[in-house]
Amino acid sequence: MDPLVERFFxxxxxxxxxxxxxxxxxxxLSIDLSPPQLTFAKKGERDIxxxxxxxxxxxxxxxxxxxVLNEGEMxxxxxxxxxxxxxxxxxxxxxxxxxxxxxxxxxxxLGDGTLRMRVPIVPAKAYAGYMRGWQDPEYYSDMDTISIxxxxxxxxxxxxxxxxxxxxxxxxxxxxxxxxxEGWIVVGRDLSRHQWQYKLHTHNYDAxxxxxxxxxxxxxxxxxxxxxxxxxxxxxLNPKYEDEVLSLNDIEQIFSVVQIINKR
Length: 264
What we know:
Layout: H1 3-17, H2 24-30, H3 35-42, H4 50-60, H5 64-69, E1 85-86, E2 88-90, E3 106-109, E4 115-121, H6 127-133, E5 144-150, E6 158-163, E7 185-190, E8 208-212, E9 216-226, E10 231-235, E11 244-247, E12 251-261
InterPro entries: LexA/Signal_pep-like_sf
């Protein structure tokens, strides 16, 4: 195997060890490299094109000189060696172009004016794999669904998330009704990026799922939105978690939670 390719795979193995990605396949998807191409490279049958090395270096703070010249440390100083927080794991993907409506769901008339919206569910994916892997047709094989009763056909992309951790739990009696417990499922509507330039309707939703480039997948309240400076302030119900100010430039997706499913 070419030494450059060998060092590339050393980095891949380290990213898996650090839980930045779950597998080499998810790493490939996150940099737009096809998994078969990665397999051929690992067998020594193909090189890794430099554009994918550049993409990996940019996305994961990898030192390009380490891969190309075997010089310096594997990662740049900006690399966070701690794992991202996963407070909600993705379960539901948007549209399957072969089977689902444009908004990624199917609707069933119940006869009483109510519609049942069927939402696909897939196993939780690691953060980097989720970010780009949802467009991979393989993700759609053998999917389960959850059903949500609605009163109209909803447009947009919906995602179901399984809640992890206790950041949205409080023992304060006046606020316990808003608790969202680990194991529950929240259904969110993807808020397109162009809408972020306007004031978010934070008063209309009790919880939001925020997919952050480095901090992971978070479920929080959004208590303030500084439109001019593109910043949001997030709040946990659990008092042991402090409020945080996040730049929208560091966020990939925002979902407004439209339904909470109690799985207890």
